[in-house]
User: Fold this.
Amino acid sequence: KKKAAGAVLYCQLTDVFTEPRETHGDDTNFSRFLRKNQKKKEKGRCVRKRARPKSQPVSDQSATADATRRSRAKPRTSVTALIGTGIMAERVFTDMNDALCRMTGYDRNELIGKNTRLLYPSREEYEYVGRERLAQIRLAGSGTVETRWKHKNGSFVDVILNFVPFDKTDYSRGMSFTALDVTAWKKTRNERDRLFMLSVDMFCIAGFDGYFKQLNPSWSRVLGWSTEELLSRPWIEFVHPEDRTATQGVKERLVDGKTIISFENRYLCKDGSVCWLSWDSYPVPEENLMYGVARDVTEQKLREAEYHDELHFRTAIVDSIAEGVAVYYKTHGEPESRFTIWNEKMAEITGYTLKEINSADWIATLFPEPRSQEKARIRKDGVYAGKQVVNEEWTITRKNGERRIVAVYAAALATRYPETRYLVTALDITDRKKAEEEIRREQELLARITSLSPIGIVQVDREGCIRFGNSRIEKLIGVAKESVLGKFYVDTVTLIQDEKGVVISPEERIKIEDLKEPIYGVERTLTFLGGRRLVVMLNIAPLFDRQGNYDGAVITFQDISEARRTEQELLKKEKLESLGALAGGIAHDFRNLLEGIFGSIEMAKLSVENPAEVQQYLRMALGAFDRAKHLTEQLLTFAKGGAPVRQTAYVTDLVREATEFALSGSAVEARYRADGDLWPVSIDQNQMAQVVNNLVLNARQAMEHKGTIEISLGNRGLTRQSGLPLPPGRYVEIKLKDSGPGIPPELIGKIFDPFYTTKDTGSGLGLSVSYSIIKKHDGHLTVVSPPGEGASFFIYLPATDSGEAPVHSHAAAVPLRGKGRVLVMDDEEVVLKVTADMLTSLGYAVATARGGKEAIRMYKESEAAKEPFDVLILDLTVPGDLGGVEVMAALASDYPAVTAIVASGYSDEHVLASPARFGFAASIRKPYRVKGIAAVLQTVGVRKHTQDRP
Assistant:
């Protein structure tokens, strides 16, 4: 039973040991045995490697078996000597051979009757072998387990155990086992694995399914892909697309079991580069595997490519370059020489082939004139003697008789040949000579033109140094042009008046140097080195080197000073004419307004016994007063450019309120749309409401008081490509689109001109004032009006990042009444009286001063009396006395807590626009209104001052 049970393993082991075990390769007979055994275990059966042919008779089978046994007699003896065998029952040794004793270091008496646990280093390994052995026996009838035993001397022995039960139905009857010592083999395998892991070559095992199965680290080192990435994708994906078809063909040959194939292909690296690999590979069809070794030959390929490129380059020199190339040799002692190389370009230049030039006296052929022949022979003898290198221009005669100018280079070559070889190159420069002559004539013409030009012309290099100037530039700068050559152009001029503050702005420099675009019509007021102050028109065109890089510029200076003076005179004349035309309309409007004011006041006096009528007439007078004030503000804004008193605000409610006010009493419908997260802007809310009011009124009149106005507000990010005259940044866009007839194309360019109107009534200031206000807010106002589609006005206001808390236009109502002591300073008695009455009616204690000196005295006296004023309202300008700024400066040094409001009737005062810069808490414009003055007093916190005062 023991012999029968071990027959299968015996046959397999004889296969192993019929060939030498001293091998370092991966695919030894032993490794094939292990892989085969593993596959058989997976299939659930164990069969012999060599199956009997189905057609062989039984007798023949027996004969074959006998022959096989005889032929394997000697190997079997070796197996018996190397393999330990034994018998165990219930995992207790009952018998074993000498090989097993030598393998473990124990003698038979020490092992028989002992549990096999004696040989296992740990209980875990002992239990694992038991479980695995029984699992395989139940599945296949026998079990093979790789483990380790502990030698009697304490060392470890790697073994492969094979178990076969005597009775498959009763394991208690015992089983035989064999033990193969694979310690040396495992050591060899570990050394192989280390070699596999450390080799600079790229080892791999790939399956016929198209995936890598195992790779050594060199793959990741060379290609940059991680091992996981290489194993997770079909390897063909890493092959260069141009090499995939050929690589697939190699794979098919390997799958067919062909012999080892050597080939090269390209693999894609992770960084995008390409790596050349040289392969040696062979297949194992029964395992569906391919074994391969690849070597990175990228550098070799590069060197080969460089070599081929060099070879091609040398060939190209001879055959393809623009110069004629010839090589001739002269053997020592022989009088004449022969050409060995005469490229196509040389044949094209001369008209002669190599055969033709060698069959004649080439000097006499190419230089038919005696003097030229003599010169050529002298040069040839000098080259022969090695004393001269020819590098000259020669005139040759071609085969067709045409004369050409040729640049010739000739010199001896140092070679390993016994005869001396000489190199000759020839370049046909006939056309170049003609072009040079043409350029010379053009340069002479250009010099004449620039010298006679009425426009100053200079050339600057990339650093801005002047390299050329024509004669006109001398008259402009007032000094000789030689005195500015080599100087920076910015050092030769001083900018007098320009909003950019530089001769060429950064934006213009970027356009010239980076965008490579010329600039036309740049107007500057400059003072030149000689002291002349001129208004000039600059045109700047960039220059570039052969690589297309900026290499300087040509700048033209055109004196337009006289033209600008003429324009100013015309503008003054036009302004006077416009003001004259305006005077009648403005006077008419003011007469009507004054009539309304005085008439209403007169009627109020007559109706003193009827309070209701008095109130009605006074309201009418105040309404006419407001219209007069509005007209005054319009005139001041346009004529003097009223500086906006800005604050950070959201414009949504402001636009809605101004629109509804302008549309009151009409049938025009307004539709609104606004972004929910509209950016805040820094604006003068009164002026901005005036702009919206003007635009809406203009649309209302264009639609004849019926139609629709669509108003949208949104955030816009503008770039240089937006096409608007605004710097890039964040803007709030306000769009007002009406449904009227639109603006004719011939008029759209005039609508923002002052005093221009197409209506029978009005001054024509509405759109002009609006344009002026938006410009002073650093914004832009424009209009688009496609024919028949109405007009769309666009307002762009820069968004603010000031950090100031934005306010809404519909702020909560300010309480009118208050408490506190107020000192009012003004030079007009009536203003003092009315203002004092207003403040008294609001609950304030009021004192008045007719000038700045009196105001200072009264403030100091109140401080000394411990009854200080809570706030001062100071008129900005007091004729013959101190104004508000002077009073504030005088008080602030001694009373830093002083609180004052600056007042003025001039809307363009910069103090009103920035009161904090001058120490004021707020500003207010005259004439005063009760609500306005109450709101300002509440803003500066008069009540707080009052409450804090002891």
